[in-house]
Amino acid sequence: MTTPAASRPTRTDAQRNRAHIIAVAEEGFADLGVEVSMDAIAKRAGVGAGTLYRHFPSREALVAAVMEARSPDLERERVAIEDGESDSRVALERWLEAVSAFMRAYDGLPDPLRSALREQGSPLAPTCRDVIATTDRFLAAAQRDGHARKGIRGRDLYLGTLAVVWAAGTESADGSVEQGLREMLRSGWALSGEGAAPAS
């Protein structure tokens, strides 16, 4: 028997439910990290597990949707850097700082981001590829201007930044770990000397 149209959820209702779940998941991730259970997210959102899984068949799909919702913030950072910074070395440093902030938005986020690079079908893979592509552009400009070593790829800097964020988030890390590791990463890609800007 066909369900009367009036009793079926409309596309607007479905979109509203999806947006609500994403907003609640973002709060849950902020409070408890990305390992919070899907059942806990459903309970916070006031929806059944079936509704949650209909929109997001896996935790990774939900994480991807939350991170996609945060992507405009990273895009604004990119535009601000490109519009306001003429020094390609400083621009790359600022971009990597923005990527670092993006990666540490929630406890436990580095793990699914790392997994997404190995799994081409991962819902998070497109976000990772976009960030890497932008990193490549900033890096290419710094290499062209003699501020960054040749042979380094945007993917390398992305993984290095991810490793720094992961290490800084471990229980044994103190407040100085991230800064020290970021300086080590910078020393790996930055060139100094004639034609290059001094390290900040």
Task: Describe this entry's structure for a reader.
The protein contains nine helices and no strands. It has 200 residues and is mostly helical. The chain has two domains: 57 residues, Homeodomain-like (Arc Repressor Mutant, subunit A), CATH 1.10.10; 125 residues, Orthogonal Bundle (Tetracycline Repressor, domain 2), CATH 1.10.357. The longest helix has 26 residues. The radius of gyration is 20 Å and the shape is elongated. 28% of the residues are buried.
Q: Termini distance?
A: 70 Å
Helix content: 55-70%
What amount of the residues lies in strands? under 5%
The beta-strand count equals: 0
Gist of the model:
The protein is mainly α. The protein has helices at 11-32, 38-45, 49-55, 59-84, 88-103, 110-118, 125-144, 154-168, 177-189. Mean pLDDT is 87; it is low at 1-7 and 194-200.
Spell out the key features of this protein.
mainly alpha; TetR/AcrR family transcriptional regulator; Arc Repressor Mutant, subunit A; disordered C terminus; 200 residues; Tetracycline Repressor, domain 2; 0% strand
Please describe the topology of this protein.
Layout: H1 11-32, H2 38-45, H3 49-55, H4 59-84, H5 88-103, H6 110-118, H7 125-144, H8 154-168, H9 177-189
